[in-house]
Amino acid sequence: MTHNPNLPGRRRLFVPALGGLYAAAHDGVETLMRVVAGLALVTHGYGKIMNPFGAAGMVESLGFYPGSFWSLLLALTEFVGGLFIAIGFLTRPSAFAAFFVLMVTVYFHWIVKAEGYGGSELSIIWASIMLFFAIRGGNRHSVDAKIGREF
Q1: Sign for the pseudo-dihedral over CA of 39, 43, 49, 52
Q2: What is the CA radius of gyration of the chain?
Q3: pLDDT of residue 60
Q4: Band of the pLDDT at 11, cuts 50, 70, 90?
Q5: Of the spans 14-18, 75-79, 147-151, which averages the highest pLDDT?
Q6: Degrees, nearest 5: CA angle 126-31-82
Q7: SS3 120
Q8: Peptide bond preceding 8: is omega within 30 degrees of 0, i.e. cis?
Q9: Nearest-angstrom CA–CA distance, 15 and 54
Q10: What does the DSSP 8-state code read for residue 110?
Q11: How many Cβ atoms are within 10 Å of 48's Cβ, its own excluded?
Q12: Which end of the chain has the lower number of beta carbons within 10 A, N or C?
């Protein structure tokens, strides 16, 4: 049987010569996105981890009781979870926890602060990135892959 690039479901590139570049860069670019996203969470969570109960009032205002518990969990999710995502350790559960946090921020900006899509756009983008890694995992350039175990 010969290879037929016109079969249904087969991608055809406008510039076929770029196929090798795309294939070679795929894992590296995905890894870069995971590292950048994880480190962005670390940066965002740094202030929270320095004062892990500082957001207690804010989380209670959103209906999360007791605030001290949820504030601590928020700090750990952003800071420690961000580190885990960056290195690709427990990637799926860490990314899912971050996805949940980001969906709460979508609700906060869209509904509570009545900012609509404009106020929620960044959280929606970041939530989408976290959902990608919650489903995809850390790829072959991750601690998960190095230890041979994924969640």
Answers
A1: negative
A2: 19
A3: 95
A4: confident
A5: 75-79
A6: 50
A7: helix
A8: no
A9: 53
A10: I
A11: 19
A12: N
